[in-house]
Amino acid sequence: MDYLFFTEIIHTLAALAISAYVFYRFGNWKLSVLAILWGVGLDIDHLLDYFIWQQSLSFNLAEFLSGGYYREMAHLSLFLHGWEYPIIILIGQRFLKKKPKNRHIPRILQTIAWTWLAHLIVDQLTNFPPPFAYFITYRLFFGAKIWGC
Does the pLDDT of residue 67 top 80, yes or no? Predict the structure, then answer.
């Protein structure tokens, strides 16, 4: 089975779990759908790395899903794969909770942050990157690779 395809299945299962929790907690099916879309959609940044590796905008689905380009690249950008994002969102949404007219925004932000965290946990456990590789700040300051190979 292709590597990226396999990890997308795991991301989908994690997003479904968050989706079920969100529906249980908020009773809102739209937020549940958001959780699924966000949980899988975060990997859109893999396309940038694929096109950089490909050195063109041509696209081969089988090649993309194999994930082989990861091992050949010196660095992956994966700009959406950073622990800082969901942490900042969770902190920020706490301030919005205090304003009654914004009562839906904190729920949306919580859904996005929880799904983001689940996605990163799956990546951390399945990709075996160096310990701090999914911190954007770490990669910026130390130029660390995400891929552990």
Answer: no
Question: Which has the minimum average pLDDT: 32-36, 78-82, 138-142?
Answer: 138-142
* DSSP assignments along 96-137, one per residue: HTTSGGGTHHHHHHHHHHHHHHHHHHHHHHHH---TTTT-HH
Is the model's pLDDT at 144 over the cut of 70? no
Q: Which residues of 13-52 are buried (b: 16+ CB within 10 A; e: fewer)?
A: ebbeebbebbbeebeeeebbebbbebbbebbeebeebbee
Alpha helices in the chain (DSSP H): 3-26, 29-41, 45-54, 61-66, 68-72, 84-96, 104-127, 136-142
pLDDT of 50 > 80? The answer is yes
CA angle 126, 130, 135 (to 5 degrees): 95
Residue of 19, 14, 26 whose CA lies nearest to 106: 26
The domain ranges of the chain are 3-142
- Residue partners of 144: CB distance under 8 A and separation at least 6: 130, 132, 133, 138
